[in-house]
Amino acid sequence: MLYVPRGLLEETRAHLLREAPKEGVGLWAGRREVERVIPLPNVHPSPLTAYLADPLALLKALKALEREGLSLLAIYHSHPKGPALPSPRDIKEARWRVPYVIFGTDGVRAFLLPEGQEVALVVL
Ligand SMILES: [Zn+2]
């Protein structure tokens, strides 16, 4: 289960809308529930259909979380023109053990990848 306050879900949506029509990417961090939304630059050469979090920004963000005693809870990204389902590329390139949260045209869902097991998203 992934617990996210409504306000932070909206903050994430706002970030992804600013990135559209490109895919947007970022981190959710916190202790038990999401406490922090951390947008990251998408530096993928084909950002309309794929994402790659800027490696240096990602490293900086992870270090800052560690300093503050927060854990990485999820990685989010958007499918501006597609469903909230992992794409073949999402599955192939998955390497984190936290849920992948996908914002699609039909809503938002979370999955463990590459297994594809859905994680319940609980909005607080
Ligand atoms: Zn994707």
From TrEMBL:
CDD domains in the record: MPN_like (cd08070)
Coiled coil ranges: none
InterPro entries: JAB_dom_prok (IPR028090), JAMM/MPN+_dom (IPR000555), VirAsm_ModProt (IPR051929)
Plastid among keywords: no
GO BP of this protein: proteolysis
Keywords: Hydrolase, Metal-binding, Metalloprotease, Protease, Zinc
Span of domain JAB1/MPN/MOV34 metalloenzyme: 1-124
GO molecular function: metalloexopeptidase activity; zinc ion binding
Name listed for the protein in its UniProt record: Metal-dependent protease of the PAD1/JAB1 superfamily
